[in-house]
Design goal:
InterPro entries: AB_hydrolase_1, AB_hydrolase_fold, AB_hydrolase_sf. It comes from Mesorhizobium hawassense. One of its GO terms (cellular component) is membrane. It is a single chain. With about 260 residues, this protein is an alpha/beta fold. The chain has a domain at about 5-115 and about 185-250: Rossmann fold (3-Layer(aba) Sandwich), CATH 3.40.50.1820. It is built from 10 helices and 7 strands. Strands 1-3-2-4-5-6-7 form a 7-stranded mixed sheet, with helices on both faces. The longest helix is centred in the middle third of the chain and has 17 residues, at about 115-135. It starts with 5 loop residues before the first strand and ends with a helix.
């Protein structure tokens, strides 16, 4: 079964955008608009999210990887560039390691290569708040963790609006997705990635700290590392800078 997905643009260079824990393709609305004039851009709501909210699933990394490959097959795309943010960057690692022939380049954005003690600490706290205080408190905590305190008044982030947004999926789905990357660690395999790789991290990211991006870039041969600010959601808070970095990188890649 292939999930519903978005396809925009008809350029010869195809790009698959992988969303993180939130699972909704709307995260990429701005970047899709920026890339679609020159690229074919694929994005999708993951199981339990958006247009695919009624599809049951186990909400594991393996399941999301399989869904992504099914979508590429359905779209008739043999090889694409890949962009993954946050947990989408973890999925991207699985995709390029396990399906290397399907990808011509990869961007690891605001993500991590090992679910270490810090990641587990934050994940456990979020799940505890979800279970004990409910989805509204969980959403507020998540928004605060994603927002760099130094930019709390930044209009591009709109924290006041974000903390008031209702949950977009049932708590059971949120918790299952939250658990998906626990114990993830494929650092020992990253040296086998030979396609052009860009790693983008934010110095003020509390959910995927910059040391994780530095580790990824150090382990992948010839990977480029770009550091910016904007908190965990820097593709949104620094959308123009982010899109420029991706356009430059993707423009250097042979489809």
């Amino acid at each position: 079964m292939t999930l519903a997905y978005n396809r925009e643009g008809d350029g010869p260079h195809a790009v698959l955008l992988m969303t993180g824990l939130g699972g909704h393709a709307e995260f990429w609305n701005g970047l899709r608009h920026d890339l679609s004039p020159s690229h074919t851009v694929i994005s999708f709501d993951q199981r339990g999210c958006g247009r695919n909210s009624d599809l049951p699933g186990d909400h594991t990394l393996a399941e999301i990887v399989a869904d992504a490959i099914d979508i590429l097959d359905d779209a008739g795309l043999a090889k694409v560039s890949l962009v993954g943010h946050s947990m989408g960057g973890v999925v991207a690692q699985c995709l390029v390691l396990d399906h290397a022939n399907r990808f011509s380049a990869v961007v690891f954005s605001g993500t991590f290569c090992a679910f270490d003690w810090y990641m587990e600490l934050v994940g456990d706290l979020r799940n505890q708040v979800l279970n004990d205080a409910g989805p509204e408190a969980y959403s507020k905590l998540s928004a605060l963790l994603a927002m760099p305190g130094g930019n709390v008044l930044d209009a591009d982030y709109d924290l006041k609006s974000r903390v008031k947004r209702p949950a977009k999926m049932p708590s059971a789905v949120v918790e299952a997705r939250q658990r998906a990357p626990y114990n993830f660690d494929r650092r020992g395999e990253l040296g086998s990635i030979t396609i052009p790789s860009l790693v983008v991290g934010a110095a003020d990211d509390m959910l995927a700290p910059l040391y994780q991006s530095r580790d990824i870039a150090s382990l992948i041969p010839n990977a480029q590392l770009e550091v910016m600010d904007g908190g965990h959601f820097f593709p949104l808070t620094r959308s123009q800078i982010y899109a420029e970095k991706l356009r430059k990188f993707l423009g250097s890649v042979r489809p």
